[in-house]
Amino acid sequence: MGRLHCTQDPVPEAVGGDMQQLNQLSAQQFSALTEVLFHFLTEPKEVERFLAQLSEFAATNQISLGPLRSIVKSLLLVPNGALKKGLTAEQVRADFMTLGLSEEKAIYFSEKWKQNAPTLARWAVGQTLMINQLVDMEWKFGVTSGSSELEKVGSIFLQLKLVVKKGNQTENVYIAKQCCVATGARLSAPRRGRHRSKSRRVCAYWKNLTNKHTCANGAKR
After folding, report:
1. COMM domain: which residues (predicted)?
2. Cα angle 209-212-213, degrees, rounded to a multiple of 5
3. Closest CA to 69 of 107, 27, 33
4. Across-strand partners of 164?
5. C-alpha angle 208-166-177 in degrees, rounded to nearest 5
6. Which residues of 176-192 are buried (b: 16+ CB within 10 A; e: fewer)?
7. CA 36 centroid distance within chain
8. Rounded to an integer, what distance in angstroms lies between the CA atom of residue 111 and that of residue 150?
9. Nearest residue to 18 via CA among 33, 6, 5
10. What average pLDDT does the structure give for the chain?
11. Taking the C-alpha atoms of 83, 88, 93 and 95 in order, what is their torsion angle to the nearest 10 degrees?
12. Residue 138 forms beta bridges with which residues?
């Protein structure tokens, strides 16, 4: 087997057989299965709908659901790597042909990839496709006192520790934010002056991360 663009890892043995099973599908069947797959790729949170569509496809085409799921898993191998590495439609086509998919079906899939590329790219910006998983999150929030001449202006520190799963390992990711704000004031209502905009930025940052509004004294609203 030639070199793949989508991954450098060894390809599971089942992939070759699954590609041969795909080659036996008619053009109409492959088109229907590809449509189901792209619905999932563009809306990956709809897992239940995806499985229901696979079950319907299996029943309609008299294909056992177990082997079909294996086929779809192999079919997802290239898109997953393509999203991670930003592959072109041509590279997607080449990888499928390297894995054993017929040229006709590889071209069809790559054309669908090109059509859906803008939607997939927008989704991939803020998400991680089946690669990184957030395992845990810890946070610390505090205020240090300032001088009376600056109206007791202090610094707000927001420290986040994210535990991210990568394959069989976990990685700690640390994020820290700091700004100046009047001590004891709520982030939602900062004191007037040059510190207002920074306070609001930290408040917005915190809301974006946790969808919770936190006051400067650590209490949650």
Report:
1. 133-221
2. 110
3. 33
4. 134, 171
5. 30
6. ebebbbbbebbbeebee
7. 19
8. 62
9. 33
10. 72
11. -60
12. 161
Interacting residues of 130 by C-beta distance below 8 A, sequence separation 6+ = 44, 80
In the block, which residue shows the tokens 């299996």?
58
Q: Is 94 exposed, middle or buried (0-12, 13-18, 19+ CB in 10 A)?
A: buried
Could you tell me the pLDDT band of residue 190, with boundaries at 50, 70 and 90? very low
CA–CA distance, 5 with 215 (Å, rounded to integer):
48
Residue 83 tokens read as 């999203």
Phi-psi region of 148 (alpha: psi -120 to 50; beta: other; left: phi over 0): alpha
Joined tokens for residue 184: 């004891």
| C-alpha to C-alpha distance for 187 and 204, rounded to whole angstroms | 9
| Range from 88-102, 146-160, 163-177 carrying the lowest mean pLDDT | 146-160
Task: State the pLDDT confidence band at 69, using cuts at 50, 70 and 90.
Answer: confident
Q: Please count the residues of the chain.
A: 221
Q: What is the DSSP letter of 25?
A: S
Both structure tokens of 50: 């995806």
- CA 161 to mean position of chain CA atoms: 19
